[in-house]
Amino acid sequence: MIKNALKALADYRHSFSLMSKLKLWQYFLVPMLISLLFGISIIAAAYGLSDNLGRLIARMWIWENGREVVETTAAIVSALLIILLGFITYKHVIMALSAPFMSPVSEKMERHLFTELHEDIVHRKTSNTSQLIRGLRINLRNLLYELAITLPLLLLSLIPVIGIVFALCSFFIQSYYAGFGNMDYTLERHFNYRDGVRFVKNNRWYAVGNGIVFMAVLLIPVVGIILVLPLSVTAASKTTLELLRKQKQLTATAHTSNN
């Protein structure tokens, strides 16, 4: 379990060198721009809406004393909630819209890592449209599951002392779904939707390990939003490809013997 997560974490060491060696940066330009714009929109929404929500909540305070404190506190909490929900949504929106750009990244890495197997590797026929549809489907599914699980955990995390346990659980859940989306860029070429979901479930701690760094990089102001996808997708592609090879699910021979 921990060993698998650490393996996925370790694969980040090769991200920058692989991106430079295989000239992958060109594929990340549009996703990086989308990521930056979406991140800015979340911050703008928090800044623009928090005061209005604060005033709205303050109207429920029937006493004059303390109204300003209530309004200020409500505005701050509203801003934090908008940012929190925004960034939970952020990763799924960005991953879904970036799907057509990420498949070539994984494919180039596959050619590089497994040159000797390339002629035997089985690929599903996909198009940019089908990649986008699958990305939307996977990430909508993951977003709904993540919200259903993490929102109660975040509320429980407000409990003094033991709340830290629930906060950590929430972080690992979010990490899992971030890694899930990153791994599916590779799985999309090898498995249908159901089999791809099953594969990630069976290798969930690799997804968690990849997602931990994804979540940590997001905490870096501005730079994190720009670099999070290139780093995490490159690392996840390496992890997933090596898993497919290890589990003998990559080549034509393996697929024939499994049918």
UniProtKB/TrEMBL annotation:
Record has Metal-binding as a keyword: no
State the source organism's domain of life. Answer: Bacteria
What transmembrane ranges does the database entry give?
A: 27-49, 69-90, 143-173, 212-236
Keywords associated with the record: Amino-acid biosynthesis, Cell inner membrane, Cell membrane, Membrane, Sulfate transport, Transmembrane, Transmembrane helix, Transport
Question: How would you describe this protein's topology in the membrane?
Answer: Multi-pass membrane protein
What Pfam families has UniProt attached to this entry? EI24 (PF07264)
InterPro entries, from UniProt? CysZ-like (IPR050480), CysZ/EI24 (IPR059112)
Protein's GO biological process: cysteine biosynthetic process; sulfate assimilation
Q: What is its subcellular localisation?
A: Membrane
Which GO CC terms are listed, alphabetically? plasma membrane
Kindly indicate whether the keyword Cytoplasm belongs to this entry.
Answer: no
Q: Name one GO molecular function term.
A: high-affinity sulfate:proton symporter activity
By what name is this protein known? EI24 domain-containing protein
